[in-house]
Design brief:
7-stranded mixed β-sheet; elongated; 29% helix; 5 helices; 19% strand; alpha+beta
Length: 340
């Protein structure tokens, strides 16, 4: 059988729950590899002679499950699972390296040193390298997970939780994909177990915090609660509309007042009953000239006062409408923080 007769590039057979070609492709591969196994080097998941870094030296407490054994040294190579004590590199690192107890750890790695600048082969010994290994899932009973993955410490008070002496799970790769067919939940905090929970340090947990940002970001801001923000913006919009209406009414009152003053008549001075009133021809220009400045002055005063109120909101908050206050109306989250 020729390799050209095998539709091995077809993605349809494995991108569907059922496909008629799936079994046929596997049968053709079996026939081809039986006939030409000596010529199959890596293709169709046959073995190859790839030289990869080896996991060494191995500590006495460690148990390793690896895909391959190096032909050069006889050591473990390829994808691996290491049952160990807390460490993140050479045997003197972590709590395990310091001789501590209660620090069991599991390190699952695919691609030892694959992110290194130069290609490494079986002549290279390497233990855990959290910077240059391709993909990793690390679990520790106690350690310092943030330090091991070299993430920046946040300067934001509510986010600056320390991971020292606490259990941790670190997941790292070039692209990390999490899919829930129905739902994906990201939660922080203790669960509702009878009797409550505590941390691996024995201390009670602080308020749960979810931090979303870059590994080098040290400053974070609380996420905005969308529904509460919309309610607050509606209230602000109503307040602005009401203020605009009040300004319009005030302007109309001023116009009416000025017009009344322009046509006002009164008892004049002198002998006898003398009635005087402004001359409309001379009063009209004065009236028109005075209306605009008065309106602008009044409008400016009102807007200035409004801006002062806004500045006060920003500086001190306003608990009665939910900024840093009421639980059901607050705008800023106390759980989710976003990196700047």
């Amino acid at each position: 059988m020729s390799i050209n007769n095998i539709n091995y590039k077809s993605k349809a057979a494995y991108n569907a729950i059922f496909h008629k070609n799936r079994c046929k492709i596997e049968e053709d591969i079996d026939l081809f590899t039986e006939e030409r196994l000596d010529k199959c080097v890596g293709i169709f998941l046959t073995d190859n002679n790839e030289s990869m870094p080896v996991f060494a030296p191995i500590a006495p407490c460690e148990k390793i499950i690896s895909r391959k054994i190096s032909m050069e040294t006889g050591d473990h190579s390829g994808a691996r699972i290491v049952l160990t004590r807390d460490n993140f590199g050479h045997r003197a690192t972590g709590l395990g390296g310091a001789g501590a107890t209660m620090c069991e750890a599991i390190d699952i790695v695919a691609g030892s040193l694959t992110s290194a600048k130069e290609r490494k082969t079986g002549n290279t010994q390497s233990r855990a390298n959290f910077a240059e290994d391709g993909a990793r899932l690390y679990l520790t009973e106690r350690g310092d997970i943030n330090a091991y993955f070299a993430t920046a410490k946040s300067d934001t008070a509510k986010v600056a939780a320390d991971s020292k002496m606490k259990s941790g799970i670190g997941l790292k790769s070039d692209h990390t994909l999490i899919i829930g067919r129905e739902r994906v939940r990201i939660l922080a905090g203790v669960s509702k177990y009878d009797g409550g929970e505590r941390l691996a340090t024995g201390e009670p947990s602080a308020n749960g915090v979810i931090e979303i940002g870059g590994t080098n970001q040290s400053s974070h801001q609380p996420a905005v609660l969308g529904d509460n923000l919309m309610k607050y913006l509606d209230e602000i919009n109503e307040a602005i509309s009401d203020l605009s209406k009040r300004i319009t009414d005030l302007e109309m009152d001023l116009v009416e007042y000025k017009f009344s003053m322009a046509v006002h008549q009164h008892q004049g001075a002198g002998v006898g009953a003398i009635v005087t009133f402004p001359d409309p021809i001379s009063a009209a220009p004065e009236f028109l000239q005075s209306v605009a400045p008065l309106i602008n002055k009044t409008t400016g005063t009102v807007l200035k006062e409004y801006n002062q109120v806004i500045k006060k909101f920003k500086a001190f908050g306003l608990p009665e409408i939910g900024i840093g206050g009421a639980k059901d109306k607050k705008i800023l989250s106390e759980t989710v923080f976003l990196g700047e």
